Amino acid sequence: MRAATTDKSLRNTLDWALQRMRDKGYVVNSKVTLNVEPNLAIMGYAKKEGEKHSIMISEWALDSEMLGGLVLHELAHVYFTERGAPSHDSGILERVLEDLRERDGLRAKETEYLIDAFNHLQNVIVDDVVFAVMGEKERGMAGKFFAEWVSDRPSGDPVTDTGLLCRNAFAFASLKRRGLFEKGSEMYYRNESFVSSMGAKSEQEFAWVEDFLEKASPDWEAERFSEALEAYFDRILSLMRSSSKLEDLR
């Protein structure tokens, strides 16, 4: 009975989200299914198989008040994929990473955090659609969601801390982009603590990454997107490695 009820609830949620997007002019033409992946650690993700798209939801996310927002977010990824947006062209990401490997070399951990940074760029663009579709209550919940992303203290590992800095910047940019950021908020002071603890250059680098994400355009064509991604990755890799040098001197 539980499975049947869950299946019906998922169908209703998917239909609701598709209609909300359609009402705002964001039409998804592909066949999309919504499925539960019991042991999934994250809330969910979208994947493409041929011409079909699947949104995989973790079992624990089924009872979350953010479920509707999650489905809207993953549908927005499908929307951008359908339109061949540069932000959803995996070939661009691979070319930029390969150029970095050839020029500077990349450790596995650096690559992992650069891909996380790419996801932040992709998501801040995708969420333009999501926030356009959301109601006021949902926008408020999203604001709280991003606030919970902000770290207030570095780990001590330069590569990890650069990744945390990028995540903090993504949370700030996401709210600033939609006029939802409050300067005196708890997340503001948590990040102040983070960047001051991280040390030299971190405040300046945080400001650059946050500004880059806030101003990233969904209208960039492939060449412009590729150039922007190269500059973004160069800045992040430089911070990872300059922080490592500072760490070595301590």
Walk me through the structure.
By secondary structure, this protein is mainly alpha-helical. The protein has nine helices and three strands. The protein has helices at 2-23, 67-82, 90-104, 108-133, 136-147, 158-176, 186-198, 202-215, 222-249; strands spanning 31-37, 44-49, 52-58. A hairpin with a 2-residue loop joins strand 2 and strand 3 (52-58). Mean pLDDT is 91; it is low at 245-250.
Task: Note the main attributes of this structure.
250 residues, mainly alpha, 3-stranded mixed sheet, 9 helices, 3 strands, 8% strand, globular, disordered C terminus
**Rg calc:** 19 Å
Give the biggest beta sheet. 3 strands, mixed
Going across the biggest sheet, name each strand in turn: 1-3-2
Strand element count: 3
Shape: globular
Spell the H/E element sequence.
HEEEHHHHHHHH
- The low-confidence runs, each spanning 5 or more residues with pLDDT under 50, are 245-250
What is the helix tally? Answer: 9
Our estimate of the beta-strand percent is 5-15%
Helix content range: 55-70%
Whole-number mean pLDDT? 91
Q: What's the short story on this structure?
A:
The chain has 250 residues and is mainly alpha-helical. It is 66% helix and 8% strand. Helix 3 (90-104) crosses helix 9 (222-249).
